[in-house]
């Protein structure tokens, strides 16, 4: 079996983490870099990752996240926070960065910029946020794989009140909305009902359709 598949078999959404085992910062850095390098629609990267290690902030979040203790028992809490809207400024900043980094202006790319500028900013902010949030989920998927590859446990969490988390972390003022939480840590030897249970997935035939 490939190492990646083995690690994906190993990973699970840890229900209890061991607070005495922090994740080494080099591992966290590599997980964050994997997220930064993943794909987003039009390359806009319309979300940010907030890394919360501050105990008080994490303690404040727990009651608004179904009291899920992995948030404080893990050592790092990643918060995927999507842009609340696509503005002209945000789109231009990203296209300008590409031009600056590549050192030339490409006509096709500029036409694509114009097309996005003529489409996204005038759409309803909620539609734009939903699109940005979908990009954050791609980041989440990448983070889950990167953490598994590093032998780090994680728990993807939709079970929280985004408005409260936005308030606690001051995200609204930054034009961001929390989409998903991902505590990182190590599974606790005791007290995790899921730790030794079989990973269950639909059989391949029910999941993949081959059209030859
Ligand atoms: C988007 C998303 C949201 C989730 N929210 C929670 C959550 O709030 N709490 C939790 O314990 N697990 C949560 N999970 C974990 C899933 O229940 C879990 O990934 C699924 O049952 C598959 O099992 P495994 O990841 O342990 O292999 C979430 C997973 C995803 C992908």
Automatic annotation (TrEMBL):
Family recorded in the similarity comment: Belongs to the nitroreductase family.
Domain Nitroreductase: 9-186
Keywords of this entry: Flavoprotein, FMN, NADP, Oxidoreductase
Residues spanning the signal sequence: none
Species whose genome carries this gene: Marinomonas sargassi
Cofactor requirements of the protein: FMN
One Pfam family it belongs to: Nitroreductase
Domain of life, source organism: Bacteria
Protein name stated in the entry: NAD(P)H-dependent oxidoreductase
């Amino acid at each position: 079996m490939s190492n990646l598949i083995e690690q994906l078999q190993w990973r699970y959404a840890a229900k209890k983490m061991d607070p005495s085992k922090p994740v080494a910062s080099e591992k966290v850095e590599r997980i964050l870099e994997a997220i930064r390098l993943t794909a987003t629609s039009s390359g806009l990267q319309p979300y940010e990752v907030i890394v919360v290690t501050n105990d008080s902030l994490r303690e404040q979040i727990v009651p608004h996240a179904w009291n899920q203790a992995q948030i404080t028992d893990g050592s790092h809490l990643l918060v995927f926070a999507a842009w609340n809207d696509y503005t002209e400024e945000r789109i231009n900043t990203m296209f300008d960065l590409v031009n600056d980094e590549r050192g030339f202006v490409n006509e096709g790319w500029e036409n694509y910029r114009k097309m996005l500028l003529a489409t996204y900013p005038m759409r309803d902010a909620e539609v734009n946020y939903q699109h940005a949030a979908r990009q954050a989920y791609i980041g989440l998927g990448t983070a889950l794989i990167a953490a598994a590859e590093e032998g780090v446990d994680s728990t993807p969490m939709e079970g929280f009140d985004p408005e409260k988390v936005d308030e606690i972390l001051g995200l609204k003022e930054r034009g961001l909305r929390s989409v998903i939480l991902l505590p990182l840590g190590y599974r606790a030897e005791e007290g995790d009902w899921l730790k030794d249970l079989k990973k269950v997935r639909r059989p391949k035939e029910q999941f993949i359709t081959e059209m030859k």
